[in-house]
């Protein structure tokens, strides 16, 4: 007779996600995961597979959480400017774990050059982010908030690049005021 699980899968996956987010993939050992998740090594392997598979599931969980939070913030915005300000604030310091930066950006820097799965996921997530920026920029252009002098897709690529840079810088002790100045200057390119 098979034993029933003594843990909630989503809860322990969230714990693994937070540990990978804090330490990165390479620094996180299976022993760290077992201790942090509070489950037996056999249960970890039976439920999640190997470390790489667990990491991919943790990255997917992170992506879903961030996408949900961003979508809710954009949806509740009354203007395109407000939506962009929400996203920029979120990128700089509004996340659950701002000192750890962005798990997706961290993972891209750490692994994408040698891990095809992470490279593919990074491109997917970055493309989705650029699409969100593009939709907001088009909204602002249609409502007359933003200039139409530049292509919305190209502006989205630029803003996404700034956002990735801000997420990397947010991991350091650089003052939030500096990050806000950078983001404010970037947004000024959009204003009519």
From TrEMBL:
Domain annotation HTH tetR-type: ranges: 6-66
Key words of the record: DNA-binding, Transcription, Transcription regulation
Record keyword Transcription regulation present: yes
Residue ranges flagged as DNA-binding region: 29-48
GO molecular function: DNA binding
Coiled coil: none
Superkingdom of origin organism: Bacteria
Protein name (record): TetR family transcriptional regulator
Natural source organism: Paenibacillus terrae (strain HPL-003)
Lineage: Bacteria, Bacillati, Bacillota, Bacilli, Bacillales
């Amino acid at each position: 007779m098979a034993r029933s699980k003594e843990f909630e899968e989503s809860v322990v996956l969230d714990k693994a996600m937070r540990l990978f987010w804090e330490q990165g993939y390479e620094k996180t050992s299976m022993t760290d995961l077992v201790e942090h998740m509070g489950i037996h090594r056999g249960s970890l392997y039976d439920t999640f597979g190997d470390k790489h598979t667990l990491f991919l599931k943790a990255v997917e969980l992170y992506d879903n959480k961030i996408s949900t939070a961003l979508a809710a913030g954009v949806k509740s915005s009354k203007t395109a400017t407000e939506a962009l300000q929400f996203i920029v604030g979120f990128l700089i310091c509004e996340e659950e774990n701002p000192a750890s930066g962005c798990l997706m950006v961290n993972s891209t820097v750490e692994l994408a050059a040698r891990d095809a799965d992470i490279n593919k996921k990074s491109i997917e997530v970055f493309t989705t982010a650029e699409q969100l920026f593009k939709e907001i920029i088009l909204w602002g252009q249609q409502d007359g908030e933003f200039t139409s002098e530049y292509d919305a897709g190209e502006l989205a690529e630029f803003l996404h690049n700034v956002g990735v840079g801000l997420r990397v810088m947010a991991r350091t002790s650089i003052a939030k005021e500096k990050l806000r100045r950078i983001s404010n200057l970037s947004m000024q390119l959009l204003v009519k």
